[in-house]
């Protein structure tokens, strides 16, 4: 039995065996989540054997509004069903050993940015990234100004010169929006959802990585066989 929950991001420590399993699971499920019309942004295994948590972050493609509760449910069903099948088949490469919780949620404020399309989608918003070049690591935070020809231009503000970073040098990148930017994104997603015929309002919790409450059922304490 898997308990399906939705909670904010949690910090994790390095565990090569666990992290390798997470990478294999991400590679397997990413195209299958895409078949549902969603993007698998992040799949992480947190905790230790017997008390693990499978943390999954999903998003809709650009122009398709905010992640809805039903999106989380569909992905949780897909993962829980297939993970049970892996265990029954004795597929050690894709089986989580011992008890674990499955957590599927929307991207949250610190949405991960991986591809050029991600940076282009969120132009005008503040992001934080770590770039590595020739053994030197640099942390950069600023407004995403443009992204083209494999290079990202960032406005650092305070009359500082703009920073140009090659996408190939970016080791990690996440949104770090101001409150005003976050509100603007919420309004944009509301308009997109309305255009798609999803008349229900997009609440703030639809965006912050916690449980989506556009339905009477709550994912907290829900179980999936």
Short structural description:
The protein is α+β, with helices and mostly antiparallel strands and 225 residues long. It has helices spanning 16-34, 69-89, 116-121, 179-195; strands at 2-5, 38-46, 52-60, 100-105, 126-133, 136-148, 151-155, 163-166, 170-175, 222-224.
Radius of gyration: 18 Å
Structural class: alpha+beta
Average pLDDT value? 84
Order of helices and strands: EHEEHEHEEEEEHE
Quick one: overall form? globular
Overall structural domain count: 2
Main sheet specs: 5 strands, mixed
Q: State the low-pLDDT regions, or none.
A: 1-11, 201-207, 210-225
Termini separation comes to 5 Å
Specify the helix fraction band.
Answer: 25-40%
- The count of strands amounts to 10
| Total number of helices | 4
Strand content: 25-35%
- Placed side by side, the strands forming the largest sheet appear as 2-3-4-1-10
Descriptive overview:
This protein is an alpha+beta fold and 225 residues long. The chain has helices at residues 16-34, 69-89, 116-121, 179-195; strands at 2-5, 38-46, 52-60, 100-105, 126-133, 136-148, 151-155, 163-166, 170-175, 222-224. It is 28% helix and 30% strand. β2 (38-46) and β3 form a beta hairpin. It is globular. The protein starts with a strand and ends with a strand. The model is unreliable at 1-11, 201-207 and 210-225 (pLDDT under 50).
């Amino acid at each position: 039995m898997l308990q399906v929950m939705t909670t904010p991001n949690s910090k994790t420590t390095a565990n090569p065996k666990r992290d390798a399993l997470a990478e294999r699971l991400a590679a397997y499920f990413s195209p299958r989540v895409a078949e549902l019309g969603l993007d698998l942004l992040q799949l992480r295994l947190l905790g230790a054997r017997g008390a693990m948590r499978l943390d999954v972050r999903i998003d809709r493609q650009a122009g398709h509004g905010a992640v809805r509760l039903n999106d989380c449910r569909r992905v949780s069903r897909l993962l829980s069903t297939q993970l049970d099948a892996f265990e029954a088949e004795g597929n050690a490469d894709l089986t989580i050993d011992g008890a674990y919780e499955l957590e599927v949620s929307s991207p949250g404020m610190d949405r991960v940015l991986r591809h050029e399309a991600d940076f282009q989608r969120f132009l005008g918003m503040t992001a934080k990234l770590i770039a590595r070049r020739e053994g030197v690591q640099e942390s950069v935070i600023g407004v995403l100004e443009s992204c083209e020809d494999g290079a990202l231009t960032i406005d650092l503000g305070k009359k500082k010169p703009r920073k140009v970073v090659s996408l190939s040098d970016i080791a990690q990148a996440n949104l770090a929006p101001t409150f005003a930017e976050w509100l603007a994104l919420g309004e944009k997603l509301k308009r997109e959802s309305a255009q798609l015929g999803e008349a229900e309002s997009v609440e703030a919790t639809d965006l912050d990585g916690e449980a989506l409450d556009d339905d009477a059922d709550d994912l907290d304490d829900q179980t999936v066989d």
